[in-house]
Amino acid sequence: MNRKIAFGFWLMAAGCLPAGAQRVLTLDSCRQMALRNNKQLSISKMKQDVAANERKSARTKYLPHVNALGTYVHTTKEVSILNDDQKLVLSNVGTGLVSQLPAPIQEKLAGLQTALNALGQDVVDAFRTDTRDIFAGTVALTQPVFMGGSIIAFNKIADIKERIAANALDASRQSTLYTIDQAYWQVVSLYHKQKLAQSYLDLVQKFDTDVYKMIDEGVATKSDGLSVDVKVNEAEMTLTKVNDGLVLSRMLLNQLCGLPLDEEVTLADEQAENIAVVEIAAKPDVEMAVANRPELKLLENTVALSKQATNVLKAGNLPQVVLTGGYLISNPNVFNGFEKKFSGMWNVGVSVRVPIWNWGDVMYKVRASKGTTAIVNLELADVREKIELQVNQTAFKVEEANKKLTMAQKNIQRAEENLRMANLGFSEGVITPTTVMEAQTAWLQAQSQKIDAEIDVKLSQVDLQKALGTLQ
């Protein structure tokens, strides 16, 4: 939190800089800016949010679900309980009965015949369903009781996916920090080499002037002057290459930090005369790496995910039990002779699904899933061995970089003394220009090796932190 507050004050101060002033960036501020600017890191954070919502969704599978359904259907024909012959008989029931009596009686019962026919027609009309327009609706509740363990497996899968998203975010964050550290120290290295190249150019130009003075005095030859001229040209080319490399490295650093490519910034470690190096004792702690490395965690998550996928497949061979309940309403309804009113009923039930035969489909899928799990376990073991080797190698490189820095610092003293003695001997006329140029070249190499050694110490420490999974 203190680091975030300090960084916030730094940003406020940067906003108050006068026009034309260069902002000064520390390694920590570059890291913060890179973490905010990195698109892949933003994607990883979004994936983490997606995984969290998927986990919440999986939890709802334990709970009852309620659904409502409404429908309307129009048909050209209605459902008929009576067939056409029955309708005809009922509509003419009076005529049928009276026609069997003698004619004199038929005339007397004509009114009864009409009444019976009307009564029969009323019966036919009463049996009409009028189902050409049907309205229906239902509210259904479904509660899983036992789904073969698939719901539990799906919830565990959702938990694992959330951990995968978190570990992927950690891996992306460490990768971003590793990249920005390398870009930062590359700029610092080239900046110091630029200063060294300029110092070397000034040195050989001064020597070139001295040699030509001695040529005028007849002490040195033109061949000596041409040799020095070549060294001057080489120094100028070296400076040009360093300048170009520094420009490109600054552009890369700006891009990683989310700054305009042409913005000029100053790095805090450029200001120091020497690169601040803190030597650390490298400890190849393999257990720490195994506990912290996000790559290992991701593979472990993949193993767990594969096992739960196997459990989901196994659930396909187990019974599934579901409780159901709800309310059904329709118009016309069948509760009072196809009454043209809405009416409904409650219902409760149990649904059981029992797999009987699938030609071994699930068994084969389970075997394939177990094979996938075995493959991932082998990959996990292989990565663990490689990480153990990487940790030991990076620890060795840290120790090696520390030794190189110590030797480079000693070489600086020897090279400076050698150059001082060469210049002194040349001024007294006892040493040739070639010897002086050799001393200057040795001084340049010693200075360059010192800068490389300092940067190697920094980068080897970053490599060790990344190998241990502690680059935060």
Share in helix: 55-70%
The count of helical stretches stands at: 13
What is the rounded distance between the termini?
14 Å
Strand order in the sheet with the most strands: 2-3-5-6
SSE-based structural type: alpha+beta
Would you list the SSEs in sequence order as H and E?
Answer: HEHHEHHHHEHHEHHEEHH
* Overall geometry: rod-shaped
Mean pLDDT across every amino acid position: 87
Ranges where pLDDT stays below 50 over 5 or more residues in a row are: 1-20
**Into which percentage range does the β-strand content fall?**
5-15%
Annotation, overall tally of beta strands: 6
Largest sheet: 4 strands, antiparallel
Please tell me how large the radius of gyration is. 45 Å
Please, could you describe this protein's structure?
The chain has 472 residues and is of the alpha+beta class. The strands form two sheets. A four-stranded antiparallel β-sheet has the order 2-3-5-6, with no helix packed on it. The protein is built from 13 helices and six strands.
